[in-house]
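The instructor's notes for this session suggest beginning with a concrete chain rather than abstract definitions. Hand out the sequence below and ask the class to guess, before any prediction is shown, which regions might be ordered.
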Amino acid sequence: MTDPTTPQSVAEDAERTSVPSAETAAPATPPVESPVADGAVPAEGFAELPPSELELAAPSEPLAVEPVLDAQIEVTPTEVPPAEVAPSEVAPAEVTAEPTTPAESHDDNGVLAYQNGDIVPGTVTAVRPDGLDLDLDAGRTAVVPVAELVAGTSPAVGDSVEGTVIRRQGTGRYVVSPKRAARSRAWIRIVAAQESGDVQSGVVTETVKGGVIVDLGMRAFLPESLIDVRRAGKPADLIGQTVQVIVIEATKNSDRPGERIVVSRKPLMEKVRAEERATLIQTISPGDRRRGRVSALVPFGAFVDLGGVEGLVHVSELAHRQVGTPDEVVKVGDEIDVVVLEVNPERKKISLSRKRALPDPWAAFQQAHQVGDLVFGSITGLAAFGAFVKLEGEELEGLVHISELSKFRVEDPSEVVAVGEGVWVKILEITPEKRRLSLSLRRALD
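After discussion, reveal the predicted structure:
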């Protein structure tokens, strides 16, 4: 019988048990103390060791070689990579996490395609009746339908044109719209202007209910109440004019497509009027003759805009004759000549006279008429002492004393005449220096 402790017996046992099954190897495994197991040396290598080394490595127990077989089983995964980490299976996982751009998102030359809504620059290569041909970057081309051109523009060959991508045709050419690009740029600018308060310039294109439309690259509504500090003519007068405005509202409509843009000119006009008023107050002097526009009527007179500064024409200074209410002589919007009577810089008030800017009717009347002439006029007012008569074609009034109304005794002028009634009267006296004209009704009847 072979001694189990000899090198030969160890080798034979190793040969018989070189490929043991898991069931036979596992129960026979004693506590691992062998230096072979610690060094993880394969069984084949152990069998080829020199006898002297085998004697040193062999344990006293016959089955001490079995831990070597266990070590062989443990290192097997490092020799054969597991299927779950094969490169061919990892690659699809990476593609799923970061999908590549679909082929239809690239142009024919491999360049990433433009998307609908992108704003792209191009150069006009041809002008046709139905639109433009554009050369884009990277050899790409585009067409511009004539309906998508910015109103009032006529690009020529070689001009740079910016457009919003509408779609890509089957041929690979793009359809772009300069009009939509301009609108997008305008919206960005308008929203920024609302936040910053920057002044915007635009042309008034039309009137609408309650105001006008200003073209800022997009339609903006300018309410009539925000056109100026005060009413300055009709809104329609602004059509075609370039105005400066500030944006007070720029929002997307929630109930329908489009945007709501509201602008105001009033704050800017307040600054302009203040500057004009300050300048005029310093330069105007009593006796100056000015032309202005009637801006408002009040019971005691009329306000006249002299170009940034308003002055008051008292009712007594509206005409050489007696005036009951200002609207008998002027109306809002009338352009009239006035003479400056007084300037008060501290109170910023100016007193004006219309009648002193008119020719002196008394001198002209005195040259054309004399005492005893019959003249026609209309009753403009009644007083306890008589009736006032405005002579036809003249800017002056005369007084018919109550004693000259009739041959009979009169207690009240209304017993004889009424306001608005036309009458013939005889001139009794002309006194230009006192602005007085005496008339008689009863003597005109003789």
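Then share the key points. Confidence is low (pLDDT under 50) at residues 1-60, 62-104. The first helix runs from residue 7 to 16.
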